[in-house]
# Entry
Amino acid sequence: MRIATWNVNSIRARLPHVLPWLARVRPDVLCLQEIKCQDEQFPREEIEALGYAIETHGQKSYNGVALLSLLPLSDVARGMAGEPSETGARVIAGTVGDVRVVNAYVVNGQEVGHAKYALKLGWLSVLAQLLRAEVAAHPKLVLTGDFNVTFDDRDISEPEKWRDRILCSTPEREALAAVMSAGLTDVFRHFEPAGGHYTWWDFYTRGFQRGQGLRIDHFLASPAALAASRAVTIDVDARRGEKPSDHAPVLLTIE
DNA sequence: ATGGTCGCGGAGCGA
# Structure
């Protein structure tokens, strides 16, 4: 089975990229973040025509996540118990075969010290609690999505520029580590010790054209899911072309 | 280069 994750930065704006990509790559599951629409605005017909079942957790204008699957999806859950109301729609989970898939769009945090930064750390602590329960209920679990957190300097093209800044600060990494303490492993890093692999490049600074990116979109696997994992690949080519997302899709191959 | 880009929604916010 192949599970993909992609922050599309608006599913409606990104259909010209997402539809051909789905038709060509055909992952069994695609986890979407930042669909930026309400459930009834989601372009269902075009995606269903490719054979995908769709589960959405949307909101107006901002955030929003969805699960697309060629295989039957069961036990779909939206949001998190204890989640602050102001953070919006950021989590959707479902079971595909024997794999529990949790799709998360982590709060960005704006900048270190900002009120939204405190909200990010708090939101991650709620995610850590959710994962503890989810892993206990589903031993073969994958947590994926846009984490808006790097693990270390290998995930940053210019580590000195980003030192202690948003997406790279120690408190954020500690909050992510608390999520990982449910027993999760960063599957990409498990297979690839070398740095220089990124999943997001800033529009504002034309990061992609300048080769400046961060690795913030992850696949985190429970022990049983890690043992079944075979590869994680970043589809950098999908970041090219006309009006791309600022993120590339990432794919996990798991048995 | 204290600039520079996107998307939503129709001004300013969020990333």
